[in-house]
Amino acid sequence: MTLCRRSRAIIVVALAWMLAAGSESADAEVLPLSLEQAQRQAANQAHAVLTAAQELEVARSSRRQSLATVLPSVRVGQQWMRTDDAVGVFGSRLRQERFTQADFALSALNEPAALTNVRTMIEIQQPLFSGGGALSQRRAAAEQVEAASARLVRTRQHMQFAAAEAYWRLVLSFEALSVVEAGVAAAMSHALQAEKAWRAGSVSRSQMLAARLRVAELEANLIDAHHQRDVANDGLTHLLNLPLATLLEPADELDLPSIDPLAKIDSSTSESPHRADVRALDAQLRASRHMVRREGAAYLPEIHAFARFAWDGQKPLRADGETWSAGASLSWSIFDGFLTQGRVQQARARATQIDLALVDLHNRVDRQVRDAARQLDAAQQRAEVAATAIASAQEHLRVTRIEYDHGIVTTTELLDAEVVRRSAQLRLLQAIHDVRISKARQQFALGTSLNL
């Protein structure tokens, strides 16, 4: 019987060790990581950041494309043709400047021999006037670049905040695992003492069984703690765009951060203009207003200048004759079936939508700032209560051990006191974790750089 109990204790210890090491494969990379490193990695390599960076490139390319509305366009082309069409041959000979007196013969005019003509052309077009539409389109494109740039900034802040949440969750899982492992070790020690006392006849069998039951409960908690650590590790590696097999080892510990006394935001203070997402939506609103003017410019005429140069010859790149022409064109759409009117109406509606969204965002930002300040204050109060509770739990455990040594309390009561202290430790860790996250949430709500 004694051998079985000892074997069981050895198996429990081995199980705990395997649980701690089971998630680490032989080829897994253990990566030490600080909060600063995690946030830097998230701000540069997170999928959302990479996507936002490409959206900025799209906006920049659209701004570059808008230059076509004000800069000249140059086109070069070459045309090869062989024909015996009377008009075609006559015109080609003129362009090649090879027309002779013999070509006026009726037979030559009516039934000419087949002729090859190669024409090389250069055409230049320059917009002169578009009713202000070109300028409005350029300004709208520039505002879209500003909006995309601000969205990238906000996305990076979001990923930094998400990295802080995931990082402190991982730190909490590591420290909670240490607390649970210590609790299992202490419970096993008390359980072995209870078994020895039961064999000696000094405690009842029920107390010994209660001690075993408590060990089993803590073993289940240990399994959950390992699982929570692995889940937190996978969440952070995914956020940081790291390989799946990477095992992170946090370099920071859970301790209460310094809180700026000015962190309690006055509800009358509006911090929304500092938020990058507010700046992005504001830039979108300006862009939409430029687009209203852009669509309205279709009511006015458009004027373009052009110049064309052509070289004709019997072979490619051979200029037997050359011509040029230059001029200007005016086009004015008097009636297009209400197409322009509909586009202007649509552009105005979109601008109104963005304006309403901007007002709503300002209201939400103000409430987010106030809520973040309240959450931080509540988290600090919970941390203070938890710190007081753990002091009481430690004193309770000390007194219970003395009473246990003097035979006043049972093993079960001693184990209960151990559990109370471990629970108080876990609550304190959770409270400190909440303070850390609440501080990060407040900075994220304000739109300031995260300094954690």
SSE class: alpha+beta
H and E string: HEHHEHHEHHEHEEHH
Mean pLDDT: 85
Strand numbers in spatial order across the main sheet: 2-3-5-6
Query: What is the count of DSSP helices, taking H or I runs of 4+ residues?
Result: 10
CATH topology: Outer membrane efflux proteins (OEP)
- Runs with pLDDT <50, length 5+? 1-26, 261-270
Question: Which architecture name does CATH use?
Answer: Up-down Bundle
What radius of gyration results from the CA coordinates?
40 Å
**What's the CATH superfamily, by name?**
Outer membrane efflux proteins (OEP)
- How many E strands? 6
Described by strand count, sense and barrel closure, the largest sheet is: 4 strands, antiparallel
Tell me the helix content: 55-70%
Shape: elongated
What is the first-to-last residue Cα distance?
55 Å
CATH class: Mainly Alpha
Beta strand %: 5-15%
Domain tally: 1
Describe this structure in words.
This protein has 452 residues and is an alpha+beta fold. The chain has one domain: Outer membrane efflux proteins (OEP) (Up-down Bundle). It contains ten helices and six strands; from the N terminus they run H-E-H-H-E-H-H-E-H-H-E-H-E-E-H-H. The chain has helices at residues 2-22, 35-45, 47-65, 86-95, 106-110, 133-200, 205-239, 276-296, 339-405, 411-446; strands spanning 30-33, 73-83, 115-129, 247-250, 302-313, 321-331. A hairpin with a 7-residue loop joins strand 5 (302-313) and strand 6 (321-331). Helix 2 packs antiparallel against helix 6 and helix 3 packs antiparallel against helix 6. It starts with a helix and ends in a 6-residue tail after the last helix. Mean pLDDT is 85; it is low at 1-26 and 261-270.
